Amino acid sequence: MSTSAALQPGTGEIRATEYLAASLDHLLWGRLPCATDRAVLEIDPGTEVTIDTISHEGVLEDQGRDPAAFFAAHGVERAFVLDDAVALAASEYPRNASDGPHVVTGPIAVRGARPGDLLKMTVLETTPRVPYGVISNRHGRGALPGEMPAAEENVSIFADLKHALDGSSFGTLPLVPGGQRSVRFPLAPFLGIMGVAVAGAERPHSVPPGAHGGNIDIKLLTVGSSLYLPVQVPGALAYVGDPHFAQGDGEVALTALEASLRVTIRFDLLSQADAVAEFGVLAGPLASTSEFLVPTGMDEDLDVAVQNCVRAALGLLEARYGMDRALAYAYLSAATDFDISQVVDIVKGVHAKVRVADFAGVAAGAARHTGGGIGAVRRGRHGANGSEERRG
Predict the structure, then answer these.
(1) Closest CA to 350 of 342, 362, 361
(2) CA separation for the pair 203, 138 (Å, rounded)
(3) For the CA atoms of 212, 236, 125, 21, what is the dihedral angle to 10 degrees?
(4) Are 139 and 265 in contact, with CB atoms under 8 Å apart?
(5) A GO molecular-function term, please (predicted)?
(6) Number of continuous H segments (helices) and E segments (strands) in the chain
(7) 261-270 vs 47-52, strand pairing mode
(8) Which of these CATH numbers, 1.20.272.10, 1.10.10.10, 3.10.28.20, 3.40.220.10, describes 273-359?
């Protein structure tokens, strides 16, 4: 990324033909889309879209709702502050005190998407829009409420981004306030929020995740990874937001390294029949990477979230590989990590990492599905011969 200025709206490289800026008419703040929301973009399955996202850090009321002033206090020149973030903070956006903090871009309608289908969102590119980020411990939240922060105050820690000689990027922090930035940690940008609209006329709060996806905070969703979401309304009405530069599993302080990204996402569809054969009946999000299949479990009780994730993993192994449930349970215990996605978003998240390589020896006919594997998606409403696709 160039360090001469921030990656402002419409400037710099835009990978996809379809581009969605984070302008005021393309955003929701504190709430997520529902069935009655109007799509700001309509696309065919298989379309790539480049999307600008805005981090909520620096635009919130308790930070002054003035990003230019907030970041200037950390030594950031105005050229490095995003114009769309400044415009949002200065607007009269009708955000209530009870709403969440997150800013999402969308919603995007995918033609032909119907309830029961799966929407596949594949991350193709994540580009930092600014060379800094914020880690916050605020509002008595985090894993140690009442204990951290030590004083009764909200703490926002500013982190610089640097580039190594090999081209990699890393974040920096000091050992003590005002000290030399001698602590370095790797960056792995991803979107904390990827989701689809819920049924009904009420927009859900942006903080707790659910079957719609939303604030799932799964750090595995970096470039090359995909998220599968059960479609709940016609057109799916997808959205993205809560951009991160880095996160530890758990996200224990309330936020990770939050900062704005420009992302490119490809949107594909699996029909309901193909989705069930491929993954079983999904009660919530499922991620995939080159190495893992990643079923999820969520609940306000962490123990129940773990149980839900185990059930999701069992269903996945049964549907995808035809594996006996008792044997699948044994496999998960012996070979699969169950990681905590986050514990700070009211609804806690757990995700399993099922190694795809462990099933490389499964014969093609052993699984009960009949499709072309995890990449078999419906890219349009017509089959290969151009005829209207029949569903049943």
Answers:
(1) 342
(2) 25
(3) -110
(4) no
(5) hydrolase activity, acting on carbon-nitrogen (but not peptide) bonds, in linear amides
(6) 5, 20
(7) antiparallel
(8) 3.10.28.20
- The CB-side HSE value for 280 (13 A sphere, CA atoms) comes to 21
Rounded CA-CA distance 32/22 in Å is: 15
Q: Residue length, the chain? A: 392
Query: How many other C-beta atoms are found inside a 10 Å radius of the C-beta of residue 139?
Result: 11
Contacts for 288 with CB less than 8 Å, ≥ 6 apart = 225, 226, 228, 294, 374
- Burial class from Cβ neighbours inside 10 Å (0-12, 13-18, 19+) for residue 133 reads buried
Between 363 and 338, the higher pLDDT residue: 338
Its pTM stands at 0.89
Give SS3 for 10: coil
Residues 56, 21: Cα–Cα separation, whole Å: 16
Please state the separation of Cα 191 from the chain's center in Å: 4
* Extended beta strands in 44-117, E state: 47-52, 103-110
Q: Of 84, 87, 89, 92, which is closest to residue 22 (Cα–Cα)?
A: 84
pLDDT of residue 370: 39
Kindly state the tokens that stand for 315. Answer: 């269903």
288-304: average pLDDT: 96
* % of the chain surpassing 90 pLDDT: 71
φ and ψ of 227, to 5 deg? -125, 130
> Using one digit for the tens of pLDDT, what is the confidence trace for 199-251?
999 999 999 999 999 999 999 999 999 999 999 999 999 999 999 999 988 78
CA distance 66 to 378: 44
**Residues facing 268 on adjacent strands:** 120
* Gap between the Cα atoms of 251 and 342, Å rounded: 5
- Could you tell me which residues are beta bridge partners of residue 269? 119, 378
Question: Which is it for strands 47-52 and 18-20: parallel, antiparallel or unpaired?
Answer: parallel
Burial class (CB in 10 A: 0-12, 13-18, 19+), 125: middle
Give which of 187, 251, 185 is closest to 217, Cα–Cα. Answer: 251
Amino acid at 57: E
Give the pLDDT confidence of 63-113 residue by residue, as tens digits. 899 999 999 998 899 999 999 999 999 999 988 889 999 999 999 999 999
Residue 186's Cβ-count burial label (10 Å; 0-12, 13-18, 19+) is exposed
